[in-house]
Amino acid sequence: VMGVHNVLCISGDNARIGPTPTSNTNILDMDAIQMLWILRRMRDEGIYLDGRKMKSSPRLFLGAAASPFASEPKFQALREQKKVHAGAQFLQTNLIYDPDRLDLWLEELYKRDILDKVYILAGVTPIRSRRMAQYLHHTIPGVTLPEHILERFEEAREDDFEELGVEIALEIIEKIKDKQGIHGLHLMSVGWEAIVPRLIEEAGLKQS
Q1: Is the pLDDT of residue 178 over 80?
Q2: 0.90 exceeded by the pTM?
Q3: Which residue among 68, 82, 119, 204 is buried most deeply as judged by most CB within 10 Å?
């Protein structure tokens, strides 16, 4: 549709009006795993959810979100395994601030024999302020900041917050970009788009 082939299947806001099988679809009626299964079936078998044959199958590259730190790594890996089996070809992770802890999740994916069956994009967001650091740590599900990062923001001057955020983001990128199973980065600037080119350049991600 409209040349769109890459689809990220995630939960979102309530879908108050939708197509078949009902006119009013609650967000809880379908999760990402079910959505992946439906889209994979449309792509591979040319069949709609209600069983109708499609005139032509869409060309889709299917993805899903992953939250390595939302619970114990083995439980999160189980959910990721279900998504891959349902059709996910790539995973975009939640924000990563603890690269060492990420290894535990990657190890669980390896144990489930899916680490080499999916492309993983690690989520990285530069922190612009002490308040943002505290907000991410205490408010966003599945996101935790190591104590040493929180301490660095506590000790820094307000004028140095943005530069510190860039420094930490570059440290994280350096630690995760070459990990087995990580195929790329998802740089989420959160209202700070101007910093992305610098991160790409200084992290050595720019292709020559």
Answers
A1: yes
A2: no
A3: 68
